[in-house]
């Protein structure tokens, strides 16, 4: 179960489950949203605590579930990262790793840039 804390445009998601098995990893992920996602959701930053490694697609699904807003269609099409979408883990583009299957195994910062449009 995750709890929301909203202060000054920052949304924190914290797990309330406690595990006694020592093999669980406790990681904090700082997620920054940019451009139209930030405007649409009214949130610039999310702090998420997880207890096991997740892929970038699992993280996006978790964010969507908790915010009750599906952000995935704005970033992914036909199972692929949309042209113009930028997903960074500690400043490194997931396109140069395992794309949507890139595994987050340590505390990090994830930046999410939806495709830009305009004329």
Structural write-up:
There is one protein chain. The protein is an alpha+beta fold. It has a single domain, classed as Ubiquitin-like (UB roll) (Roll), CATH 3.10.20. The strands form 3 sheets. A 7-stranded mixed sheet has the order 1-2-4-3-11-8-9. It has a two-stranded antiparallel ribbon with strand order 5-10. A hairpin with a 2-residue loop joins β1 and β2.
The main pleated sheet reads as: 7 strands, mixed
Number of domains: 1
Assign the CATH class: Alpha Beta
Whole-angstrom Rg: 14 Å
The overall strand count is 11
Q: Describe the global form.
A: globular
Helix and strand composition category: alpha+beta
What would CATH call the homologous superfamily?
Beta-grasp domain
Whole-number average pLDDT?
84
Helix content: 10-25%
Instruction: Examine the coordinates and then state which fold CATH places here, giving the name of the CATH topology.
Output: Ubiquitin-like (UB roll)
CATH architecture name: Roll
The succession of helices and strands, N to C, reads EEEHEEHEEEEEE
- Number of alpha- plus pi-helical segments: 2
Distance between the termini: 43 Å
Uncertain ranges: 1-13, 15-22
Strand order of the biggest β-sheet: 1-2-4-3-11-8-9
Strand content: 35-45%
Give a quick rundown of the structure.
The protein has helices at 35-41, 56-67; strands at 2-7, 10-15, 27-33, 45-50, 54-55, 76-77, 80-81, 86-89, 92-93, 103-104, 108-113.
What is the fold's blueprint, element by element?
Elements: E1 2-7, E2 10-15, E3 27-33, H1 35-41, E4 45-50, E5 54-55, H2 56-67, E6 76-77, E7 80-81, E8 86-89, E9 92-93, E10 103-104, E11 108-113
Parallel strand pairs: 2-4, 3-11
Antiparallel strand pairs: 1-2, 3-4, 5-10, 6-7, 8-9, 8-11
């Amino acid at each position: 179960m995750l709890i929301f804390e909203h202060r000054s445009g920052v949304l924190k998601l914290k797990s309330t489950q406690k595990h006694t098995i020592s093999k669980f990893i406790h990681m904090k992920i700082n997620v920054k949203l940019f451009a139209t996602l930030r405007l649409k959701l009214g949130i610039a930053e999310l702090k998420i605590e997880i207890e096991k490694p997740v892929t970038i697609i699992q993280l996006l699904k978790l964010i969507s579930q908790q915010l009750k807003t599906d952000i995935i269609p704005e970033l992914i099409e036909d199972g692929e990262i949309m042209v113009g979408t930028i997903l960074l883990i500690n400043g490194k583009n997931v396109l140069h790793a395992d794309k949507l299957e890139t595994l987050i195994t340590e505390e990090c910062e994830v930046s999410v840039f939806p495709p830009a449009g305009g004329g």
